[in-house]
Structure formats: C-alpha cells, structure tokens
Design brief:
The complex is a heterodimer of chains A (491) and B (232). With 491 residues, chain A is mostly helical. Chain A is built from 20 helices and no strands. Chain B is α/β, with parallel strands linked by helices and 232 residues long. In chain B, α2 packs parallel to α5 and α7 packs antiparallel against α8. The chains are: A mainly alpha (491), B alpha/beta (232).
C-alpha cells in the first residue's frame, strides 16, 4: 500500500531534482545516449549467435556462450561496484513517520532493483535464448534458461548490495574480484583448470535438465533473504550508510617548498582522494592509460599515425580534460571561501596549471613504455604531451571559466551528468579534435616529421609564454568571477 | 577602514542593498540587525567581493575591493558553510588558512591552544572531516579559522544562531576583548538583539536594503530595537 507512494516520491524526486529541468537539450542528448546503448545491447543479443558462428566456425554457439557466463557474472559484479549506489538515504524522511518497518524494507528492496544494470542483461539473454536455445533445446528449456539467468542477475544484485551494506572495504573487494578473474583467466590460458569448460558444463546441464533452474532461483532467494534480514536488523541511518573510518590529517611535505601554490595543489590532491566523483575520474584516467595496448598495435600495423596521435592525446591528456572541465566547480561548495581567503588569483591559476603539468608528465612517463612496441610511438607521444601541457591545459582553464554549475562531489561519476552543460561537450570535442585535425592534415599532405614538429612547437610556444597566458587567464577569470560564484551558490 | 558611497545591488528590480553613504572605522564593533530579507548577507558578500554591485563601490583602506586583492590579507569572514573546505579535517583546514597568512604549523597549534575552552573538546583530533561535524561545530571551526589570521576586519554572519548558549556567551566576551585589545574592526549580524546590543559599539538597522537607523550600542539601543521590531 505504501510502496506505490514511496515509488511515486522517487519518481518526483528524479524529475524535480536540481539538474533535471535545467536544460532540455542535455536531457534529450542523455536520453538519446541511453536509447542508443539499449539498442546496441539488444542488437548484440540478436547478432550474437551469428557473430559466434562467424568468428568460431564449427563450434556450437550455445557451448561458447555458456562457457563465458561465469566471466560475465564476475565482470558484472565489478561493474555493479562502480555503478550501483545504496538507496538507503532515500528512506530518511520516512523513518519517523507512522510506517511499518516491513513496508520500508520492501521499498528499499524494490527501489534498489530499479536500475538499468538489472535490465540490460535481459536484452542480451532473451534474444539469444529465443534465437539459439529455443530451436535447439525446446521451449521449456529456453524458458527455464531465462529464469535461471534472471535469477543470477538478481543474485548478483543483492550480493553487491549486501557487500556494500556490510561496509566491507569495497575497493578491497573490487581488486580481489579483478584478481579472481585474472586467476581464472590465467588457469584457462595455461590450460591448468578450465573454468570456461566448467561454466559450459554447468549451463549445458541446466539446458538438458531444465528443472535445475531452481538452484539459481534458490541462490537468488538466499541472497535476498540475507540482505533483507541484515536490513531488518539495521534500519538506522547511521548503520545503513557505510561506517566511517578514522580520518587522518595529511601533509604533503614535498609541496611545502612551493608556498601558497603548494598549498593549493595539496588541497586539490586531497579533494581528489577524499571525494567519490573526482576519485573515479582519476581511476578512469589510469584505465585509459591501458588503451595503448588495444589501439596502438593496429594503427602501427596500418601505419595510421594520425589515429595513433589521437589516442596518444587521449591517453596523456585525459586528466587535463576530465579534471579540468570542472576545475573550479570541484570547489564549488566552498568557492565563497576560496575567493575570500588570502589567495592571490594568479597563484591560484598557476597552481592549477602546475597540477596539470605534474599529472600529465606522470602519464607521459608511464605511457613511454609503449615505446617498446615501436620507436614511432615515442615522438608521437612527446608531441601529444607537449601540446597537452602547452595548449590544452590553458585552453581547458579558459573554458572552465564559463562553467557556472554547482557540483556535488560525493556522487559517483559514472553516468553522472550533473554540472555538465553544452560548453563541456563542445570543449571535450574541440580539445581532442582540433590538434588531431592539424596533425592529420600535416601528416597526410606534408609528412610525419613536419606534423610532429609543428604540434610540439605549438606546445613549446604555449609553455614559453606561460606567464603572459596566465595573466590573461586571471583577467578572464576576474571578468566572470561573480557569475561563477553566483552559479555555484545555486544548488 | 571601510568607506561606502552610493552602493546599490538589486535582484529582479528589487533593491537588496541600497546604501547612500557609510563609514566604518577601525576599533568599531558593528552590529547589523534586520529581519530576513533586509539585505544583511548580501551586504557581507558585497564587502567580500563575492557579488558584483550594480552601482557604487566599496573602498577598504581606500582601495576598491573589486579592483584590488590587498584587502584579503587583513580581512577574515565566516558567512556560511560555503567558507569551509568540507573534505579536510579541522586541523588541516586551520593549517591551510594559517599557511595562506604566513603562519607556521607551530603558530597555528599555539593559537588553537588558546581556544580549547571554546572548542569544548569536540573539534580537534576527532578523526573526522569537516563535513561530518554537526552544524554548530562547523560554525565554531569557521569562526576560529577566521580569527586565526588575526585580521584587522572581521565579518561574522549570524554567529550566535548556530551556537549553544555557553559558546554564545564566550563569543560575546571574545569579540569585546578582541576589539578592545587589538582595535579590530568587527561586523556582526544577528537576530539576537540582546547579544547585539551588548556586544556592539554601533548598531546599523537594515530594512529592504537601506540602513534606516545608525545608533550607538548599549541599553538604549536595545530598547529602540525592541520598539522597532515589535511594531513590525
């Protein structure tokens, strides 16, 4: 009875949220984005049997499919850690009302289930089952297969909720699951124990004996009950929100010698490490460092150096454009303070620039290991590096003086469009595409080295004139300072 | 210290602040009173150059607060949580603010030692970030961080509203002592006319952005304010 009321409140809170009605255009873009993802995943489900047949001819698509299910669920658990948040806080206003605990529990459970990640897998499993399993094994087996898959999705869901609720250290869990996947994959690769075969055996048995689907259903019910009983006994806000550890004060001694600038950089570092959203952006930057393994070999083989340059720019410059697009907005909750403390604006902007240079240099040094693939990578990455710190860093600071949107640091970054406006989309494209276009044209019509030297020269010029550029940026900032402050105060 | 001529700030055609002329001198304790929407906080933000005025300007020691940054080195303020860096521990925050004003860690520790009573053992070494403190304790942190820099101009917005009675009384004493010993200029806004009339040497009463009364603090001021607020 109360459940529909709860859910309708959630619906209202979604549509009336601070950022919901701000920009219709953005809503539409995000909507289209989601729709495309759904479409692609559904298409994958339909096309999967054909793809499997084509890439691995002569093998049974069902056997291949089932052999990967175990990995699918392990990876799914990883993704859930990142994307799913506990809906605990949404019951806070109801706790003191005349509502039975049972109803509150039901709401928490149902509310948590409403998440894209629980529906997406069905778009793969259902088309695949209908197209491949049903003709081969019959209707009942297919139906039971879908039930089993859905039960496993639900099991994953409540397992993730339970782990998060028990306030286990979630990053520890995250990495141990990565380790498990790596070990499984390693055993498979060196043919010690085949987990793929085990997975195939389990799910083939399921197809041959459809009644076995009660096992995953029982598993799902068990995790649900586990979760439920935990919730029932801990229906206090302070127990639902994961317990906080003792926080320690930190001092970055190596930054002390830079005076006020060092202090501002230290502040940025603390901001990154202590808040969810910037932290996940940094993790993303680290993951993108691995892109080289995926993209470099192909482009080296095809001698497509401008494409390689594009990815070098992405790998080395991702922190600047990711962190930089909200450069001031990260501090939006205390920007009134930042503007009243005894901080000289030039020092402030310079500190941001130094932060960019430091992180970018680090990324560049790590990425230099790609030079082992081919020496060609090195000049390309050097050009990307010089351009990133000499031009992109300043361009990003300039663009972010137009960002007037408040940002909540504690929300997760994945699929979070808070604080993003048309400017940010435009900026991200421009910062990556403009240098790529220059490189592409020079490389195509004049030559590889001319392209490398021109791009590098642009970066070096930017660095050489950094004093002038920073002074100009301070003036630009001061022009829009009050507008930024006003925007940040609007939460 | 502060000199204002013809200052105007309006939102959607309604005047939030409209001050023809105002001089504030060193050593004065200004109590700013007025009902909600009188323009007190807007006035404070204008003083700190956090919003741009439509007309007129504010001179701090003769320099415009919009065009120069000099005032930042001798001005400290606490208006709301927007001044706290909430992912720092209180200690880190104090060291940060201290460092910006050339105070070493030891200086800051010494200073904090003197405010043990004010903190009531609820702030330091608690192993919490500022965002995890209660509102009252956040307010204490903000006020102490503002005092830490030993400013010549101190601005506090409704400091009494979020504090417990004991701390309120301590703050009244602290403000009086600072103005007397260091000839600081202090501007305090409050809804508590009792505290304001006790602490202030001069009271400015605001209504719809205008300063409609400019009177000396003390018993008589209290009576005059009671008269004003009763009628409304």
């Amino acid at each position: 009875m109360t459940l529909p009321v709860f859910l309708s409140h959630q619906w209202l809170s979604f549509w009336r949220g601070r950022n919901a009605n701000k920009s219709l255009a953005l809503q539409i873009i995000v909507g289209v984005f989601y729709f495309l993802i759904f479409l692609e995943i559904a298409a994958l489900g339909v096309a999967l049997p054909f793809l499997l047949k084509e890439t691995m001819p002569g093998k049974d698509p069902v056997a291949i499919f089932t052999s990967y299910i175990i990995y699918y669920f392990l990876v799914g658990l990883l993704v859930r850690f990142q994307l799913q948040e506990l809906p605990s806080l949404s019951i806070q206003p109801y706790l003191a009302q005349n509502i039975r605990r049972k109803n509150m529990l039901r709401f928490l459970n149902v509310r948590s289930l409403v998440h894209v990640i629980n529906f997406l897998p069905l778009f793969v499993f259902i088309p695949f089952t209908l197209a491949v399993v049903a003709p081969a094994k019959g209707g009942i087996a297919a139906g039971c297969f879908i039930i089993a898959m859905f039960a496993l999705v639900i099991n994953n869901h409540f397992l993730n909720m339970y782990i998060k609720r028990k306030s286990f250290n979630s990053s520890w869990w995250f990495f141990s699951i990565i380790l498990i996947i790596a070990i499984f994959k390693g055993f498979d690769y060196f043919k010690i124990i085949s987990f793929e075969k085990a997975s195939a055996n389990i799910f083939t048995a399921l197809l041959n004996h459809p009644w076995l689907c009660i096992l995953p259903v029982a598993l799902a019910i068990t995790t649900f009950l586990l979760n439920n009983s935990y919730l029932r006994n801990h229906l206090y806000i302070e127990e639902l929100v994961s317990e906080s550890k003792l926080k320690v004060s930190k001092n970055y001694a190596f930054l002390n010698r830079y005076g006020d600038m060092g202090e501002i950089i230290a502040l940025d570092l603390k901001l990154i490490f202590r808040n969810k959203r910037p932290r996940s952006l940094v993790i993303l930057s680290a993951v993108i460092l691995l892109y080289g393994f995926i993209f470099y070999p192909t482009y080296l083989k095809t001698q497509n150096f401008s494409a390689l340059f594009f990815f070098a720019l992405l790998i080395i410059g991702i922190f600047i454009s990711n962190y930089g697009q909200f450069l001031f907005a990260w501090q939006s909750s205390h920007f009134d303070g930042m503007m009243s403390y005894n901080i000289n604006m030039k020092q402030y902007i310079k500190a941001k620039f130094l932060l960019f240079v430091t992180v970018c240099t680090l990324q560049f040094l790590i990425a230099s290991f790609y030079g082992l693939m081919s020496w060609r990578v090195l000049p390309i990455q050097l050009a990307a590096f010089l351009y990133s710190i000499g031009i992109n860093s300043f361009a990003t600071i300039y663009a972010t003086t137009f960002n007037y949107k408040y940002l909540d640091l504690r929300k997760s970054a994945s699929l979070n469009f808070q604080g993003i406006g048309a400017v940010q989309w435009f900026q991200t494209f421009l910062i990556l595409l403009a240098p790529w276009l220059v490189f592409f044209l020079l490389n195509k019509f004049i030559g590889f080295w001319v392209a490398i030297i021109s791009i590098s020269a642009l970066g070096v010029i930017g660095l050489a004139f950094n004093e002038m550029i920073i002074n100009w940026l301070v003036r630009q900032f001061n022009i829009r300072k009050h507008k930024i402050l006003e925007g940040f105060r609007e939460r | 210290m502060i000199s204002i001529k013809n200052l105007k700030k309006s939102y959607k055609g309604i005047n939030a602040v409209d001050i023809d002329s105002l001089e504030i001198h060193a050593g004065e304790i200004i109590g700013l009173v007025g009902n909600n929407g009188a323009g007190k906080t807007t006035f404070f933000r204008l003083l700190l150059d956090l919003i741009r005025s439509n007309e007129g300007e504010i001179l701090s020691k003769g320099n415009s607060v919009t065009l120069t940054e000099e005032w930042k080195s001798y001005t400290a303020a606490y208006i709301d949580e927007g001044f706290l860096i909430d992912y720092l521990t209180p200690e880190e925050y104090f060291y940060f603010v201290g460092k910006l004003n050339l105070l070493s860690k030891a200086d800051v520790d010494d200073f904090l030692q003197g405010y043990q009573l004010f903190f009531d053992d609820a702030i330091l070494n608690k192993g919490k970030y500022i965002r995890d403190f209660s509102k009252g304790n956040q307010f204490k942190i903000g006020i102490i961080a503002a005092l830490l820099t030993d400013p010549e101009l101190l601005i506090l917005d409704e400091p009494f509203a979020n504090l417990d009675p004991t701390t309120q009384l301590r703050l009244v004493d602290m403000i009086k002592k600072m103005a007397r010993d260091k000839s600081m200029c202090i501007i305090v806004s409050s809804h508590d006319i009792n505290h304001v009339s006790e602490v202030s040497s001069r009271i400015l009463l605001m209504e719809k952005g205008k300063i409609i009364k400019d009177i000396a603090g003390g018993e008589a001021a209290y009576g005059e304010m009671v008269e004003y607020f009763k009628v409304r």
